[in-house]
Each structure stands twice: as C-alpha cells, then as structure tokens.
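Entry for magnesium ion complex. Fields follow.
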Amino acid sequence: MDTVIVSIDEKNPDEEAIKKAGEIIKAGGLVAFPTETVYGLGGDALNPESSKKIYAAKGRPSDNPLIVHIFRIEDLYAIAEEVSWEAQKLIEAFWPGPLTMIFKKKACVPYETTGGLDTVAVRFPVHPTAMAFIEAAGGFVAAPSANLSGRPSPTLAKYVCEDLDGRVDMIIDGGNIPIGLESTIVDMTGEVPMILRPGFVSFEMLEEVIGKVGLDPTILDANCGERPKAPGMRYRHYAPKADMTIVRGADENVISRINEMAAGKEKCAVICVSEHVSEYPGITVKNVGSRNNSEEIAAGLYRILRECDDEGIETILSESFSENGIGAAIMNRLVKAAGHKILDV
Ligand code: AMP
Ligand code: MG
C-alpha cells in the first residue's frame, strides 16, 4: 500500500487534507494523526472491518481493545450507557483532554473495536488537528497509538513512518506532540472509578474532582497476582530494543552504580536528568529533562527510547524519577520499558 504523508500545521490547518483524511476513514481506510498525548492510528470505530485493519497494521493482539475518539461531548451518548455523575464531573473538568473513560457500550459499537468486551473506552482529545480530523471522519475514530505493537509510542511523525509506512493510507505529520505519554484511563463501570493506566491527568487531579478514586493494583505491583483490567497493560509494551535497567536510590549511589555498570560496555546509554549530565563521563548520555519538570521528562521519554534504538544502543541504564503527579505515569512506562528490571542501590 502507498502511504500518503501530509504535514498539517494546527494553527493554519489544510482543510482539503483534513477532508481527504476523513474520506479515507469513511471508506474503511486507516490514517495516523497527531493528538496531544501521542500519535494515533485511526479507523472508523463503528466499522468492524476498520478495527480489524488496525490490529493487522499494528500487529496488535485482537483482545486488546481500542479507544474511541470523539470530537464533541454529545456523541458520547451515542456509544456509551450509564454515564454516572462522576463521569459528568470528569467530563466537565478534563474534556477535551488526555483522559479516557470506560463505559458500558451501546450495540452500535462492534466487538471488533472493544476486543470482545461489553465496555467501550472513550476519549475527547484537545489537539486541534485531531478534533478536525475526527469530525471529518464521521465522529467516531478508533485509535490506538501509532506504533507497531510493543514499540514505544510515537511522539514524532518520523517514528510513525518508521513503523507504519506502507501499512496505512495516510500519515498526518502534526510536528511535535506536547504531552508525550498516553492518556489516563479510568474505568467508570464499577462502584468506585478506577485508574487502569496512569497518565497526565493524575490520581490527585481526579480525586480533587470526584473524591474517591481506585487504582488497579497491578499498576503499583506487577507481581501482585492479579491481571491488569486494561488488557493492553498485560503485554510487554513501550519497549526499546536494548536491555534496560532502572537504577533507583540516593543520587550518589545511583550515579556511582551506573558508572560501574557502564564501565567497559560498548553501546551503552544512560538516561538521566539534566542536573546529572556531567556525572557520566565517557558514556552516551540521554538528557531527559530537569528533575524539577516532570512534564519535560514525559515529553522526552519515548523519543529517547527510540533514539537509543536508532543508534544501536544495546544497554540502557536509567535513573529513576519522581512519582508525583504525572511522574506516576512516567515511572509506569519506564518500568514496563525495562521489563520490570529495577536495581535498588
Ligand atoms: P493504546 O490505544 O495503544 O494506548 O491502548 C489502549 C489501552 O486502553 C489498552 O491498554 C487497552 O487495553 C485499554 N482499553 C481500551 N478499551 C478498554 C476497555 N473497554 N476496558 C479496559 N481497557 C480498555
Ligand atoms: Mg499503545
């Protein structure tokens, strides 16, 4: 398949290109597009054949459900049942934005889109190009992240092309992505809303709006004996090609242990905060941003994992970062990228 690549400036959108992208979706095709979290791989959420194509293009297991993206709140009620008062409050507080909520699905949403589940995950993104594209596409776009299954989610169009060129009809290059980590997922179908995947909208932010919020126990402890409620969280994910270890502890201990571990290793990179770049002489250093700026770390993390792949890095040693606010999401993705290899020093 020939993939058309178009650049769209969100401040001055090319309406013809958006219209064309919408027509591709309505005809059952696939379009990768920018959102505020990561690039998405979109298809018509109400067309089972489109969802099947998404799974095939990504190499994604078909029991891993897709998030349905909408461009206005009223459309939620066409696909979801039982929108609780908590959900209403979260909509008021965080939509449009990087929050996905799970509801009971209506019959119009095919099981191909929900991975066979009776629930549907819904998100209303805030990125102007995403909103215009979803509207042009008919209002309901199923979209997982636009990477091959298991690879780090793309935050630049060049990484979408690397993974999906020849597998989708169109890629919309919208430049850099502001947040850089996937949306927070909250299951609204139980008695207490429960976070299934941490993201930019943090536990504290949710709690402030609705009071009680639960956390899927597997987020904190992958070995707690339960299965993650979000099927996608069960798979090895966000993984670079290198063997990766997180070193955790007091600064001096972390710095000296990483230096020891890197000694004599070729093709080794250290992921560290900007305050520590001069602490690793002679080692390839990936500066992920200031320790005081978790947003910067979130925005840079996936790009750095991909850069390590591009440079043929075989060993990644990463510092560990704050778990406050969006830090919980950063550490969740980092630990998964490392296949849960953490060294306490
Ligand atoms: P991605 O689109 O690649 O960010 O992945 C979407 C995530 O949402 C995966 O972890 C899915 O398992 C999760 N998800 C989507 N729909 C549901 C649902 N109905 N119930 C639970 N998790 C879901
Ligand atoms: Mg993904």
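NOTE: Residues 144-145, 153 surround magnesium ion (ligand 2) (CB under 6 Å).
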